[in-house]
Amino acid sequence: xxDFGPAADARCWFEPFESGGERRWPLTEVIYRDxxxxxxxxxxxxxxxxxxxxxxxxxxxxxxxxxxxEWPYGSGVWxxxxxxxxxxxxxxxxxxxxxxxxxxxxxxxxxxxDIEDLWIKLCGNTHTGSFKDLGMTVxxxxxxxxxHRGQGIPAVACASTGDTSAALAAYAAYAGIxxxxxxxxxxxxxxxxxxxxxxxxxxxxxxxxxxxCMAIVQEIAERDGIYLANSxxxxxxxxxxxxxxxxxxxFDWQVPDWxxxxxxxxxxxxALGKGLLEFLELGIIxxxxxxxxxxxxxxxxxxxxxxxxxxxxxxxxxxxTLASAIQIGNPVSYPKxxxxxxxxxxxxxxxxxxxxxxxxxxxxxxxLFNCPHTGVALAALRKLRSRGEIGATxxxxxxxxxxxxxxTDFKVAYHRHRLPDIDSTGANRxxxxxxxxxxxxxxxxxxxxxxx
Length: 452
Ligand SMILES: *Cc1c(COP(=O)(O)O)cnc(C)c1O
Description:
It contains 17 helices and 12 strands. It is α/β, with parallel strands linked by helices. The protein has a domain of 205 residues: Rossmann fold (3-Layer(aba) Sandwich), CATH 3.40.50.1100.
């Protein structure tokens, strides 16, 4: 049970997602899709073997490892190493002790939304400021393992809406592996652009959207042997799936009623589901939460599919949205996302740009500092609550996907009333005043009155 690296190669493998486990490939093979059907792959673990350890022992093991500095278990991801990716040897793991992000009771925000038991999982409080770190530590570690086993991999590459590239650049730089990132020009924030630049990645800004960058990076991966780091690569899902596991661990192994998550390429909602299903199979939890996936109206292919009862799925042309990280019209992981939503009694909701901007600003006034994608989740939550789909006493967790500090350009524009077609009803402008006690006092008193 406890050997890692090559000794664990037979304990997990890639298999076709839709057609099951007849055909298998090792995790150290360069393969992204089923060569026969072009379908998605998934990572399958030898669950029989994992079940040898009791649920109580698993919980104890995870508790013992949490928040230590012991390599590599101080990471929220590698603390669940047996369930995530045992094939990487200790010395090849590329980790900056990601995960273990705070889950907190959003009391005032919950009161405003009439949800007493509202919690926020702040996935942006991690190394590169988004949940993408959780998956990238696994992918880059496997690449590092492959390099150390003598497989020639010249570089890793991804297309990104800004956060995947930041995570890839940082983890590749930590490992000393060359990274290439393809970004849609003017569609990521300044902070997101400077992250891979600072980490020394080959940073390409292309005159297209995310879907256009994705098409090119896939071609580079196929033709030129560069390793593809997009979430089509199911290794990332293995790291990202720890978010749901971590939430139940933080609740002393209790399962919340709802988890709300924004969706773009739909890897994250699938990962959330996969982790919780594995916990269920191991007896670590005894029920599942319901999952709500939130999309921007301007990039809503999953919502449209949901409205048709998932009868069909059609890509859309994603239009510009404040939630730039989810401006994706042709999400690669949609089959997995639909499967997750069907197993978790899932719902999909869509929200307008006005709703996104106002939800962010409102939640910020209760002490948060949200990214627009978290705004999408919060706006969807508001709708689901007001329709009565989510109850007033339900325990609800909103997954906040990135740190608001990456999106100050959006916040500045909101508070300056400069977002096109958005009515900034909660704008708060800094007040310019002479450095004079009397004027400052008068104005402060006036503002206190105005706000009370
Ligand atoms: C990547 C990302 C998402 C969307 O996740 P998917 O797996 O693409 O659905 C949401 N929010 C932020 C901040 C992201 O970086």
